[in-house]
Amino acid sequence: MTFEYAPAPESRSIVSIKPKYGHFINGSFVSGKKHFPTINPATEEILSHIALGGLSDVDKAVIAAQKAYTKTWSKLSGKERGKYLYRIARILQERAREFAVLETLDNGKPIRETRDIDIPLVAAHFFYHAGWADKLDYAGLGHSPKAFGVAGQIIPWNFPLLMLAWKVAPALATGNTVVLKPAETTSLTALLFAEVCQQAELPDGVVNIVTGDGSTGAAIVNHPGIHKIAFTGSTDVGKKIARAIASTEKKATLELGGKGANIVFDDAPVDETVEGIVNGIFFNQGHVCCAGSRLIVQESIADEIIEKLKVRMAKIRVGDPLDKNTDLGAINSKEQLVKIKELSAIGDSEGAERWSPQCNLSNKGYWFAPTIFTGVTQAHRIAQEEIFGPVLSVLTFRTPQEAMDKANNTPFGLSAGIWSEKGSRIFWASQHLKAGVIWANTFNKFDPASPFGGYKESGWGREGGRHGLAAYLKNGKESGSN
Ligand code: NDP
Question: How far apart are the first and last CA of the chain?
């Protein structure tokens, strides 16, 4: 006998969304000229209208950030900067529920994830970097390492507030000021963060937020007052940024796409592995640059793993992101849904076999059922390209070396997972994988102390940990800049 889940929706009354937002420049909200709607991808309801930043808005923000850098922020001791970061971290914790609900509304990800993963990690990033602010001399990055000045930061829509924290916390801890552009479809939590900066009495101009689209991002990249760029997003835009700054002195960290291999050896604990595969690809609707989007499983256990995976997938609850029992929420935008559908159709036409559990998907909003493709070969586009959705491509191997060759055979090198009972096998495999982050018998675990970044087309440099600090300091030894 099975019981149905009763609806358990989180109330949205805790958030108050204004009908229209401007930019946050020099400590105040200033009106924008043009606006575009931001919607709830689960319902297509228009939540608000966001300002479309142009060259003059970016210019004002950079001037405010330069002034704040020279007049205030660079004059404060690390200890004083750290106090502001601690204050921000505590306010984020106090307002965690409000941020979680707002993120879920604007992004479409389940409240269970915003509440238990995104927002706690956001606060953790500020706490972690608050601790470093007065200890930079002891970080092994040289004596009295110096900030660049103004950092331009451009972030994507998959972890809106978490990506803001990954960018803003190390920049402020190391003494830089910031001009940040959130993604077009998910600006609301960044704008609420601006209120947190006011509440924490952060000096004016230390954090500036200019909302907008790709042209706003390009204006930040090309502004002569920006000395360091931190970008997370697609490899295509990362390449454009690399080209734009090639003949300048600007430094950059680029955190780009991935096609992570989740490698399962025949001695892996089956049930835990199946849970790890699900977490690797269906967490955050698969909108994860380090997702385990390729399952590379030893041939002798492939049938058993796939059978159990299908049973587990049939239990994934797809639906209202605000419901506390939802596992898989809405796809963030219509454009992303089109891309997922197109690449999946290519998987069909290339001869892979598609399977999804029965799901009742709403007619309103953007939805895609959890999907696996079996019979995938390395030549298939679904084995090479980032789908950035809840779609898993399954490949098999016979020997450990074949697993390594297949895992490394993409243009990317961001993440990998290894499932095996043998420590020696895990160490051997981790030495042969070209991936910036490798998990063993787990997947998609994040910590502010742990550096994150990729090889090849997955980007330049590392974010997080001591390595991430280096990327915000002139001559930071660990910097993976251009
Ligand atoms: P983009 O790379 O286009 O967007 C990332 C950020 O860059 C956004 O804030 C975007 O603005 C901004 N941007 C766009 N063009 C420029 C430019 N020329 N110069 C500076 N900044 C720019 O990713 P998309 O949102 O379009 O997603 C496309 C694909 O990228 C996805 O399908 C996925 O495969 C991949 N992706 C990877 C991510 C990762 O974490 N590795 C994250 C997001 C996407 P805006 O979007 O507001 O117009």
Answer: 60
329, 18 Cβ separation under 8 angstroms: no
Supply the pLDDT for residue 477: 59
Q: Is 289 in the pocket of ligand 1 (CB under 6 A)?
A: yes
Q: Which helix (H) or strand (E) holds 91?
A: helix 78-94
Calpha distance 472→277 (Å, rounded): 34
Report which protein residue has its CA nearest ligand 1's atom 35. 234
Q: Could you identify the atom of ligand 1 that is nearest to the CA of residue 213?
A: 48
Atom of ligand 1 nearest to the CA of 220: 20
Atom of ligand 1 nearest to the CA of 185: 47
Give tens-digit pLDDT for 180-218: 999 999 999 999 999 999 999 999 999 999 999 999 999
Closest alpha carbon to 217 in 52, 459, 454, 48: 52
- Specify whether 255 is catalytic: yes
Catalytic residue, chosen from 289, 385, 457, 463, is 289
pLDDT digits (tens, 9 = 90+) for 465-479: 999 999 999 976 554
What pLDDT was estimated at residue 464? 96
Hey, is 353 helix, strand or coil? strand
Strands 437-440 and 415-419: parallel
Q: Looking at residues 45-58, what average pLDDT do you find?
A: 98
pLDDT in tens, 168-177: 999 999 999 9
- 238 in ligand 1 pocket by Cβ < 6 Å? no
221 lines ligand 1 (CB under 6 A): yes
Residue type, 189: T
